[in-house]
Amino acid sequence: MSLVTNRSPCAVEAITEVAAEKRPRRWWFALVVVALLAEMAIAMITTAVEQTPTIDEPVYVGTAVVYLEQHSLRYNPEHPPLGKLIIATGLAFAGAHLDPAFAGDQTQLGRHVLYESGDDPGRLLLSARLPVIVLTLLFGLVVFAFARDLTGPAGGVTALALYAFSPDLIAHGSLATLDVPVAGFLLTSVWLVWRARRRPLRYLPLAGLALGAAVATKMSALAAVPVLLLLVVLSVWHARRGTGPQRMVLGVAAAVAVALLAVAVVWASYLAVDPRLHWTTPPNLPAVHGLRAVAEWLPLPRPYLDGMRVQFAFEDRTWSTFLFGTYHAGSLWYYLPAALLVKTPLGALALGLAGAVVLVAIPRLRPAAPYVLVPAAVLLAAAMTSTRDLGVRYAIFVPMFLAIAAAGVVAIPRRRAHAAVAVLVVFAAVSSLRTFPYYLPYSNEAFGGPARTHLRLHDSNVDWGQDLGRLAGRLSRDHPGERIWLVYKGSGVPSAYGIAAADPLAVPAAEVHGLLAVSDSAIAKADGRLAALISGSAPIDEVGHSITIYRRP
User: Fold this and answer.
1) What pLDDT is recorded for position 410?
2) Distance between CA atoms of 322 and 332, rounded to whole angstroms?
3) Is 516 helix (H, G, I), strand (E, B) or coil?
4) pLDDT for residue 24
5) Where does the pLDDT of residue 5 fall: very low under 50, low under 70, confident under 90, or very high at 90 and above?
6) 102, 216, 325, 364 - which has most CB atoms within 10 Å?
7) Class of residue 542 by CB neighbours under 10 A (exposed 0-12, middle 13-18, buried 19+)
8) pLDDT single digits (tens) 463-501
9) Tens digits of per-residue pLDDT, 300-318?
10) Alpha carbon of residue 444 to chain centroid
11) Please, which residues have CB within 8 angstroms of residue 344's CB and are 6 or more apart in sequence?
12) How many CA atoms lie within 13 A of 84 on its CB side?
């Protein structure tokens, strides 16, 4: 006999009324989720349509075409194939093609595919960006589900709102790059390991696949692997009964199984490109010593291991840093936290930090703290050791985990706390909407907004070559027929957008008259000739908060 039939008629009626009340609430939450994802989709698609190629995109697009047509791994070995295979799913329907006789390097490859193959570069680029946009929206559902598991539907909506209105996630989620995919796969693996606390047999295999997808997308995900495996042991320990040694053995066995699944995904990504795994180690790769030599023992494909050596060579170079208006030769260990402080909406920052405290302070939420806070902290610490201070995209996982942590504030049983959550979410949303459609150069109100970001940060934080098309439109509309001088930082080809410009650094300064358009990243690092040209010019316009137009008498 069912439990309901043992109850009194009044009790049955009360249960029926409660269930009837919950149905509309479920529909309301579902509609809010759809609305938030629709807003994010519109923002990303609009951005993807309006922006020309960023610096990294042509290489990924060209490599994806090589995967499709030639099944070769010879280009872009410093990044594993999965992210580029995802990009290739869009290009497969765009008719992208490569001249079989092409024999240039990967930079020339990207230029050839986008600008020299006879295809429309805008259409090809949008086709490459759409799969990443779809994936970014799916990761939004993971954020919602993770936060809902912790604090209920209200927490899930709070987290999703912060995710959907994050300017950095919109900016990089609309590009055919690897930063959002790797962060999203890592987040998904953490969420599945969290769920394994109740059903390890169901969720741990999926967690292994998600972790493998992250490692097969970008090598920076390797820093999270030890943390994820320790969390696997923790989840199994929680899920299984028995003595301490028995639970520990089961946990270690589960971690090994998850690691093996992740390794299998990495191998599968390479075999999907070339089933025979033809590979020739590139010449002049640096030798590895010390801790780096441990990488050679990883059970991963030879192209992956050689790609790690390419990354080590990048790390050994001296890169410049621009932070808070000062140029530095070399990296700054605090660069990423400082850049995140500038580029995170103040409402999201306040809620995320408060939520992190709540996760530790409230006993019923404390078990989630290692899953939400530790992976993000370890990944951020690893990213801070990099010599490449080129943008918050290296820490794009932070707004994802920060959004989930923010849901913890919803668990505070006080109306003032709930009102504060609503106000801060609206504040973050308004800040994001005000920067539309210029999400890449976003900075929050405390640092002057997107129009002033270039005074504090550079490169992919502000100017990644995305506004060449917008510059073409502005020159055509407001300055037709004028002489144009251009210093452009990017991978686009100015002539492909109708810009007939000359290089002002290739002629004597006395010959440079008319309009001088300069990428803001070039302005940040200007010295010598360029600094002199800028100082003798008057700024008259700006494009997308990333390119400044001067007039030289």
Assistant:
1) 95
2) 9
3) strand
4) 60
5) very low
6) 216
7) middle
8) 999 999 999 999 999 999 899 999 999 999 999 999 999
9) 999 999 999 999 999 988 8
10) 18
11) 166, 168, 352, 398, 399, 402, 444
12) 29
* CA pair distance 321, 457, nearest whole angstrom: 9
State the Cα–Cα distance between residues 373 and 405, nearest whole angstrom. Answer: 8
Q: Collapse the DSSP code of 108 into the 3-class scheme (helix H, G, I; strand E, B; otherwise coil) and give the result.
A: helix
CA separation for the pair 275, 229 (Å, rounded)? 29
Q: By the 8 A CB rule, do 181 and 217 touch?
A: yes
Q: Is the pLDDT of residue 368 over 50?
A: yes
Please tell me the distance from the alpha carbon of residue 214 to that of residue 301, in angstroms, as a whole number: 15
Q: Which two tokens stand for residue 176?
A: 């055919």
Which residue carries 């316009």 as its tokens?
A: 541
The residues with which 302 forms a beta bridge, in sequence order, are none
Cβ-contact 170, 40 below 8 angstroms: yes
Provide the pLDDT for residue 15.
Answer: 43
CA dist list (Å): 184 to 115, 125, 377, 397, 398: 31, 22, 16, 7, 11
Tokens of 381: 């610490």
The answer to whether 538 and 550 are in contact (CB under 8 A) is: yes
CB 496 within 8 A of CB 115: yes
Nearby residues of 204 by Cβ (< 8 Å), 6 or more positions away: 192, 193, 196, 232, 235, 236, 254, 257, 258
Return the axis-axis angle of helices 244-273 and 225-239, rounded to nearest 10°. Answer: 140
Task: Name the token pair of 508.
Answer: 């004597």
Say if residues 517 and 483 touch (Cβ distance below 8 Å): no
Q: Which two tokens stand for residue 25?
A: 């609430």
| Residues 483, 551 contacting (CB under 8 angstroms) | no
Residue 294's Cβ-count burial label (10 Å; 0-12, 13-18, 19+) is: exposed
In a 3-state reduction of DSSP, which class is residue 489? Answer: coil
User: Which of 226, 111, 228, 161 minimizes the C-alpha distance to 430?
Assistant: 161
Q: Which tokens is 16 given?
A: 């029926």
pTM: 0.93
Number of other CB atoms surrounding residue 171 within 10 Å? 32
